[in-house]
């Protein structure tokens, strides 16, 4: 569905700061109410956004054609003048990053049952992208801030701006590295060799973060090392190889 800029401006009360629910390198996300009363998340890309027009169109093309309970639903978009806006379903519990690692996080609400359910839900979403679509899709930026949670903490994978279609008849794609430090598979980060395994590596980091409640992109103050390095040290000390 195509929305007008005026309609989305009205839905967010002129993009009022009180409706702001997220911010990143791409721009700002607002909570909005459409004319029909539907509550949505409105992602407004900033003029200096790292997500250029190519990535913006990629995200629209990729997510418009996929439907799954563990993927964020794209409702519509707006391209008027210099404005590039995406309209998504609104998810009440924001991002996994905020719920798990944020300053005012709801980590105490995430008991082990919920955490395991989140892991399984993300895995189902990735399985759908990798094995049930033709051609498959490699997300390339699986991380806590790109996992959104609904009112029941059901996880949904979002932000398909750097996703790649992956034909079945090739083993890998050599491409420009995109993604987030701390989640990149070594062969992809160092050689630009992309396979579906890059998403699986990122998912593994995500599982460690969900279990530990720690971020892999930040060093632990008590040991001065990222989460993955700390895990490797623990495995070594316990004489476990992997």
Automatic annotation (TrEMBL):
Gene3D superfamilies (UniProt xref): Phosphorylase Kinase, domain 1, Transferase(Phosphotransferase) domain 1
Keyword Transferase: yes
Keyword flag ATP-binding: yes
GO molecular-function term, one example from the UniProt record: ATP binding
SMART domains: S_TKc
SUPFAM superfamilies, alphabetized: Protein kinase-like (PK-like)
Pfam assignment, any one: Pkinase
UniProt main location, coarse: membrane
InterPro entries: CR_Ser/Thr_kinase (IPR052059), Kinase-like_dom_sf (IPR011009), Prot_kinase_dom (IPR000719), Protein_kinase_ATP_BS (IPR017441), Ser/Thr_kinase_AS (IPR008271)
UniProt GO cellular component terms: plasma membrane
The entry's keywords: ATP-binding, Cell membrane, Glycoprotein, Kinase, Membrane, Nucleotide-binding, Receptor, Serine/threonine-protein kinase, Signal, Transferase, Transmembrane, Transmembrane helix
Residues that bind ATP: 43
Membrane topology: Single-pass type I membrane protein
Top-level taxon of the source organism: Eukaryota
Compartments reported by the entry: Cell membrane
Listed GO biological process terms: defense response to oomycetes
Domain Protein kinase intervals: 15-242
Family annotation (PANTHER family): CYSTEINE-RICH RECEPTOR-LIKE PROTEIN KINASE 3
Family of the protein in this entry: Belongs to the protein kinase superfamily. In the N-terminal section; belongs to the leguminous lectin family.
Name of protein: Protein kinase domain-containing protein
């Amino acid at each position: 569905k195509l929305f007008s800029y005026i309609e989305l401006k009205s839905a967010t009360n002129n993009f009022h700061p009180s409706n702001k629910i997220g911010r990143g390198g791409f721009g700002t996300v607002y909570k909005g109410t459409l004319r029909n009363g539907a509550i949505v998340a409105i992602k407004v890309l900033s003029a200096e956004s790292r997500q250029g027009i190519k990535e913006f169109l990629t995200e629209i093309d990729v997510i418009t054609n996929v439907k799954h309970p563990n993927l964020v639903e794209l409702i519509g978009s707006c391209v008027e003048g210099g404005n590039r806006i995406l309209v998504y379903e609104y998810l009440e519990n924001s991002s996994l990053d905020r719920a798990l690692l944020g300053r005012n996080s709801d980590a105490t609400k995430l008991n082990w049952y919920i955490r395991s359910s989140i892991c399984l839900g993300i895995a189902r979403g990735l399985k759908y992208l990798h094995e049930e679509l033709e051609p498959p899709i490699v997300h390339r930026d699986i991380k806590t801030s790109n996992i959104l949670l609904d009112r029941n903490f059901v996880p949904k994978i979002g932000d398909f701006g750097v996703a790649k279609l992956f034909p079945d008849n090739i083993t890998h794609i050599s491409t420009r590295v995109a993604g987030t430090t701390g989640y990149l598979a070594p062969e992809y980060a160092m050689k630009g060799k992309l396979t579906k395994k890059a998403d699986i590596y990122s998912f593994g980091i995500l599982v460690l973060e969900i279990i530990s409640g720690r971020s892999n992109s930040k060093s632990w103050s008590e040991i001065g090392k990222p989460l993955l390095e700390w895990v490797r040290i623990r495995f070594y000390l316990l004489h476990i190889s992997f």
